[in-house]
User: Which sequence fits this backbone?
């Protein structure tokens, strides 16, 4: 079973508007971390935001916020006031903690969402 | 140089060639990673090297051979590759390979084409 699911292969948003990129995850480990990365066409993966499973509040970093709903196992990325430079591929990833070992303890990525910001 | 660098950025090789990809991190991290990113597929972890552990994805063919001479350098040696190995190869580093809260910093990738 997929550990990270991103159901939106592509999204469009008007410049200056907010957009939500969906991510659901699957784990039985009580300790885990959730990450969002941005990948522009240049190829480099850029870290955006992190949410720990025990964090009480939703993570925020500038225009990025993470809507963490633990019971639903969702970790949606919200980008406010979209800019043309936000057009990129966005990946959700998870890292399991105490219950995992070896490669299972490493980052697992979703298939990504291609975001296009329209002028 | 800052962050994570990778060379070459682009590589075209025949199936009988031998080549190496190089990754260098200038962040003082203790863990380094190789990922493969194929079109329309999620990133696939290939190898992890850290002070705590070495992790290999068992599905990675033996024609890919990693080498980590120190905590700042990571190589991926390639030999007798197949066309399906054409992909973007990403290197990453993090302070540690354990712990759920460490984000990984990625290099720009090497775009590999096998002809």
Assistant:
């Amino acid at each position: 079973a997929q550990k990270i699911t991103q159901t939106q292969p592509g999204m469009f948003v008007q410049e200056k508007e907010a957009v939500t990129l969906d991510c659901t995850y699957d784990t039985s480990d009580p300790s885990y971390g959730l990450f969002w990365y941005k990948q522009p066409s240049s190829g480099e993966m850029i870290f955006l935001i992190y949410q720990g499973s025990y964090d009480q509040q939703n993570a925020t970093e500038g225009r990025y916020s993470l809507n963490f709903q633990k019971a639903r196992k969702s970790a949606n990325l919200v980008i406010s006031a979209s800019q043309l430079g936000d057009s990129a591929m966005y990946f959700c990833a998870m890292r399991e903690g105490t219950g995992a070992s070896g490669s299972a303890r490493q980052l697992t990525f979703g298939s990504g969402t291609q975001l296009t910001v329209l002028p | 140089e800052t962050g994570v660098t990778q060379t070459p950025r682009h590589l075209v090789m025949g199936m009988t060639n031998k080549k190496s990809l190089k990754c260098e991190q200038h962040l003082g991290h203790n863990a380094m990673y190789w990922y493969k990113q194929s079109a329309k597929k999620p990133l696939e972890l290939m190898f992890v090297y850290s002070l705590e552990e070495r992790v290999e994805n068992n599905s990675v063919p033996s024609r890919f051979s990693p080498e980590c001479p120190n905590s700042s350098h990571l190589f991926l040696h390639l030999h007798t590759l197949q066309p399906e190995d054409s992909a973007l190869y990403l290197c990453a580093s993090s302070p540690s390979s354990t712990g759920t809260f460490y984000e990984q910093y990625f290099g720009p990738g090497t775009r590999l084409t096998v002809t």
